[in-house]
UniProtKB/TrEMBL annotation:
The keyword Transferase does not apply. Belongs to the Nudix hydrolase family. The lineage of its organism: Bacteria, Bacillati, Actinomycetota, Actinomycetes, Streptosporangiales. PANTHER family: GDP-MANNOSE MANNOSYL HYDROLASE. Gene3D superfamilies: Nucleoside Triphosphate Pyrophosphohydrolase. It comes from Actinomadura luzonensis. Its cofactor is Mg(2+). Transmembrane segments: none annotated. It holds the Pfam family NUDIX. This is NUDIX domain-containing protein. SUPFAM superfamilies: Nudix. Residues 6-149 form the Nudix hydrolase domain. Keywords: Hydrolase, Magnesium.
């Protein structure tokens, strides 16, 4: 089956709690539901938005956490990835921003689009040590390195 090409510029929000754990979503590709994976909150920029504004909007839409764009730090890296999801062959530039949300942040899928609700299974707060030791697939694959930069106050990428 030929995939529909899609080019996207995305902001990835990395919400961190008081223990430096990052919130990840657990989901599936609708054409490969037997291969779940963990991924960061985020999505494509909309017309007139900056990347960090997109990160703030996506944080609310995907997990129900409100944060203003000026609360984010970063960027902590930009990378271009290619992958298939559903009927699409996606080329995506993704830029990573962090935001402190505290331990009282309540996660909700209420504001997700229906396709996101249908393909998002769960959420989990991950520590750096858990990311480095898990056998479960997560994206981006260098997330532990990005998290290390954020929590150590390292250089922005």
């Amino acid at each position: 089956m030929t995939k529909i090409p899609l080019r996207r510029f995305t902001a990835r929000a990395l919400p961190l709690d008081d223990q430096d754990r990052v919130l990840l979503l657990h989901g599936i590709d609708p054409v490969r539901p037997d291969r779940p994976f963990w991924f960061t909150v985020g999505g494509a920029m909309e017309d007139g938005e900056t990347l960090v504004e997109a990160a703030a909007r996506e944080l609310f839409e995907e997990v129900g956490i409100r944060a203003h764009a000026d609360e984010f730090s970063g960027p902590y890296g930009t990378v271009t990835v290619t992958f298939e999801w559903g009927e699409y062959a996606i080329t995506q530039d993704q830029t990573f921003y962090a935001v402190r949300v505290g331990e009282t942040a309540s996660v909700s899928f209420e504001h997700m689009e229906q396709i996101e609700k249908d393909t998002t299974l769960a959420f989990r707060w991950w520590s750096l040590e858990e990311l480095e030791s898990t056998e479960e697939p997560y994206f981006p694959e260098d997330l532990a390195g990005i998290l290390r930069k954020i929590t150590a106050g390292g250089e922005r990428g």
